[in-house]
Design brief:
Blueprint: E1 5-8, E2 31-34, E3 45-47, H1 64-74, E4 82-84, H2 90-93, H3 99-107, H4 112-118, H5 124-147, E5 149-152, H6 173-183, E6 190-194, H7 201-206, E7 213-220, E8 233-237, H8 243-260, E9 265-269, H9 287-304, E10 308-311, H10 320-334, H11 340-351
Parallel strand pairs: 3-4, 3-5, 5-10, 6-7, 6-9, 7-8, 9-10
Antiparallel strand pairs: 1-2
The protein binds zinc ion (ZN).
Length: 376
């Protein structure tokens, strides 16, 4: 049985122009055959919301957003382009995590302290769900390498370190996805563009000292995590930062990153917690500002001719519908060029639902009831 797809490792633009790249000393074969995948590569969007994690009723994590987001996307997307995310295997997880940590997670023997740091009660369902959440990023990345874009309707688990979880993140999806694709010879170099309001500490540590991966994190200086291990490029922003300042900082960061580094793939962590009404974020981007942010990232990647996989990350608006709408805005923007008519219509109908300014619902009842820690 022959391979299902073949493509060159060197970047080929969708208009057919192949741009030469400077060779690395350890260059793998230039023509890579991608073996037949369990998940067809014609999928663009991956969901894992059917794998539900049992949480106490009063748990702070807005788990329902994943099913809500899938329902919104499902109404727009041709159904055969939306697929259940595959589960990552133990050996794929081992690309980014230590053997001791994996053993403790998989066997349910995490210490109480390690479990508290993660913030989810351990259960076999937790492990099953997180395998899918990471698998969505890996599958979305494979789709992006073929089609230019891929989307994981979960993932963005950037607080998971090689040897410990944290902030509702069990496994580091970017770490597992990038290292897996590298081990298969499908990519050499990758960039992580992390626009969640919380700094991507786990991702920074996973790739510390790894010259094949460039990590960018633009975040609230005063947000969790309070110890921020250095990314390749960190952009901490002061409390209350608004659209114009944020967009200027993002454009400058991407300019610096792409001058320094030429990736085969970008993983875009598109957390919507920099939104002005977020209960936990210290930044003040409007809904339009978040859209502009997405457009800046996608526009820059398009100009650089780099495929992008989008992961969701955090979002803690008081109303779950607002979180869903803000994430959906990003998903439709990601897919805009693939289905202009469908996503154009979806964006128009979404505009009635999107939160357009800070409203009374956005004020938390009491800041003391919401600990500004340990969140995706
Ligand atoms: Zn976050």
């Amino acid at each position: 049985m022959g391979p299902m797809y073949q493509y060159r490792l060197s970047r080929t633009s969708r208009c057919g122009i192949t741009r030469p790249r400077e060779p690395l000393s350890h260059s793998p074969p230039r023509l890579v055959a991608c073996p037949r995948q369990a998940t067809p590569l014609s999928m663009y969007v991956f969901t894992s919301d059917h794998f539900v994690l049992p949480l106490p009723a009063d748990h702070r994590f807005p788990m329902a957003k994943y099913a809500g987001l899938r329902k919104v996307v499902e109404r727009v997307l041709p159904s055969h382009f939306l697929a259940e995310a595959p589960a990552v295997t133990d050996s794929q997880l081992a690309h980014a995590h230590s053997a001791a940590y994996l053993q403790a997670v998989l066997q349910g023997t995490l210490s109480p302290k390690a479990a508290r740091r993660i913030g989810f009660p351990w259960s076999p369902a937790l492990v099953a769900r997180e395998r899918r959440s990471v698998g969505g990023t890996l599958a979305g990345a494979r789709a992006a390498l073929v089609h230019g874009r891929g989307v994981n309707l979960a993932g963005g688990t950037h607080h998971a370190h090689p040897g410990q979880g944290g902030g509702f993140c069990l496994f580091n999806d970017a770490g597992v996805a990038i290292r897996t694709l590298q081990s298969e010879g499908l990519i050499e170099r990758a960039m992580v563009v992390d626009c969640d309001v919380h700094q991507g500490d786990g991702t920074a540590v996973v790739f510390q000292g790894d010259a094949s991966v460039f990590t960018v994190s633009i975040h609230g200086a005063k947000n969790y995590p309070f110890r921020k291990p250095p990314s390749s490029l960190d952009v901490p922003l002061p409390e209350g930062t608004t659209d114009a300042t944020y967009i200027n900082a993002l454009e400058a960061a991407l300019e610096q990153a792409f001058r320094a580094f030429s990736p085969d793939l970008v993983i875009y962590q598109s957390g919507v917690d920099p939104w002005e009404g977020d209960r936990l974020g210290t930044l003040a981007l409007t809904t339009a500002g978040l859209l502009k942010r997405d457009q800046v990232v996608f526009g820059r990647c398009d100009r650089e001719d780099v495929p992008v996989v989008v992961t969701m990350g955090g979002g803690y608006a008081p109303a779950i519908d607002d979180i869903v709408s803000l994430h959906a805005q990003t998903v439709f923007e990601a897919l805009r060029d693939l289905w202009p008519a469908r996503t154009g219509h979806a964006r128009a109908s979404l505009s009635d639902r999107l939160p357009h300014s800070r409203d009374p619902r956005a004020t938390p009842p009491s800041t003391s009831t919401i600990a500004p820690a340990n969140l995706l």
